[in-house]
Amino acid sequence: MPRCWAAVRDRRQPELKPLGPPIEQLAADLRRLLRLHGALTVSAHSALCAHRVWAVEAAIGARAIETAAALGVPHPDPSAAPSLTRTELSALLSALAAEGLVLPRWVGHFTLDGRL
């Protein structure tokens, strides 16, 4: 009998582990990046920090794709994250917000009226 129990015990499924960071961390990072983007785009020195705005937009795209994958929201291929257009990024952020992710109402200039 002990061998039988040992065989059953060994056949149990391994403990499942998440593939990425917790959704709370993903959401907090995304909100922080969106606030930073908004601050950079309204800055008086926006011409001087264009490269930084581009880098923040790339980070927002990468984090938005990770968040979409975690929530099961349709998203572009992760290898395309740095090349998302503002329209694609706006659509992805809107899909995340529709799924229940809390994002700032003002997300920079991703949408015409500045709202999701």
Radius of gyration, Cα only, in angstroms? 20 Å
Helices, by number, come to 4
Record field, number of beta strands? 0
Shape: elongated
Instruction: Tell me the series of helices and strands, N- to C-terminal.
Output: HHHH
Largest sheet: none
Could you characterize what this model shows?
With 116 residues, the chain is mainly α. It has one domain. It is built from four helices and no strands. It has helices at 2-10, 23-41, 50-71, 86-98. Helix 2 (23-41) runs antiparallel to helix 3 and helix 3 (50-71) runs parallel beside helix 4 (86-98). It starts with a helix and ends in an 18-residue tail after the last helix. 22% of the residues are buried. Residues 111-116 have low confidence and may be disordered.
Concise synopsis of the structure shown:
The chain has 116 residues and is mainly α. The protein is built from 4 helices and no strands.
Helices and strands in order:
Blueprint (H helix, E strand, L loop, with lengths): L1 H9 L12 H19 L8 H22 L14 H13 L18
Helix pairs in contact: 2-3, 3-4
